[in-house]
Specification:
By secondary structure, the protein is mainly α. The protein has five helices and two strands, in the order αββαααα. It has a two-stranded antiparallel sheet with strand order 1-2. Helix 1 runs antiparallel to helix 2, helix 3 packs across helix 4 and helix 4 crosses helix 5. The protein starts with a helix and ends with a helix.
């Protein structure tokens, strides 16, 4: 466990949000009703200008529908892989709670909630500074890595 893998949690969270938005957009587009107003005149005399309301639903060509299904499949795979990575990182943090609950809180606030070091220190209270919080996490991660290498 290191800061890079902890930072991956925020990236996974953002990728998951973006993927879900993209999937929602794909699903909404297939059922979206289209409305428009066009202006035109009659073909014969008198050439009176009129407005016509045009309505319908959006549909793709067979090739477009195939591409959309392929894109949906790719997005679903990305969503599944990202959820697995996020769940793996959350499980790691849950194990950290048993080893050092204070360090687990630091990880939660800093990496899972995306707070700055200063915001993390304020949230922890107890007179912690951003430097003391950062150093505490560094010591904890170093101990975890040393224990893992010795095991």
């Amino acid at each position: 466990m290191d800061k890079r893998s902890l930072g991956a949690y925020l990236a996974a969270k953002k990728i998951l949000e973006d993927t879900e938005k993209a999937l929602e957009g794909l699903h909404a587009r297939g059922t979206q009703a289209e409305h428009d107003v066009v202006r035109g005149s009659m073909q014969e005399h008198p050439y009176t200008m009129r407005s016509y309301q045009v309505e319908g639903t959006f549909s793709l060509s067979p090739e477009g529908a195939r591409q959309e299904r392929h894109l949906e499949k790719l997005l679903e795979e990305r969503k599944k892989d990202t959820q697995e990575k996020r769940d793996e990182l959350e499980a790691t943090v849950n194990r950290m709670v048993l080893m050092n609950p204070h360090a687990a809180l630091i990880v939660k606030y800093r990496y899972m909630d995306g707070l700055t070091w200063e915001q993390t220190a304020k949230k922890l209270k107890g007179g912690a500074t951003k430097e003391s919080v950062r150093k505490e996490l560094n010591r904890f991660l170093k101990n975890i890595n040393n224990n893992a290498n010795n095991a």
